[in-house]
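Extended Data, record HTH tetR-type domain-containing protein
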Amino acid sequence: MTSQSTELPQNFEKKETRGRKRLLKRDDILKGALSIGLDNLTMKTLAEHLNVGTATLYQYFENRENLMMEAAEYSIKLLPFPDYRGQGWQELAIEYTQNVQRILKQHPSFIHSHPVTDYGYKIHFTLTEKILTDLVSCGLDAKQAIQVAHIITMASYGGAVEAIRQERLPIEGADIQSYIAGQFKEMDSNEFPILSENIEDFILSAEDKTNFLLKIALANIQSEFEKK
């Protein structure tokens, strides 16, 4: 059972303050940054969104980079990640992978960002510590939990990249399965004998590909744990 939503808050209420001074709180700025989206964030657009002058933002944050780092860290606190409810570590790993994959898909800049120059290492450490804590609660030791966390990370990033790629189809509203199947029908089947006989197994959604990889990886690591 997965959490109901992993999307960052998108629809914060914008308070109209024209004609009077507004005392901003730091949370107001961070929530405003998330509502705009970190991929498109500039100090100017955020100031317009909050109905304040750009100079006001610089009273709270030295520059855009500092704002981005703190907003990204703040976003982790708002995400309803799965909690340990007595489920096995494999089930929890799948839940985490699905959640992180959705977040990365929604915010592609998290995928190609550099932890030093963009959002900072703290957001990575914060998320990892949360995952490790829950995995240890499932009965894994710290080293085992870190191994599983690596699987979660790589599967999440790979799944998000594939999901983004599949959505960028030249035909609006088309799904990846029907689109690729249509493209393959135009090919000479004699050139692709193996694919021709197994095209349905080849055409998978990003979610199905991720689950396929997870099933193999988690089963293999379970075997390794049992040997020790």
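Summary. The domain at 84-227 is CATH 1.10.357 (Tetracycline Repressor; domain 2).
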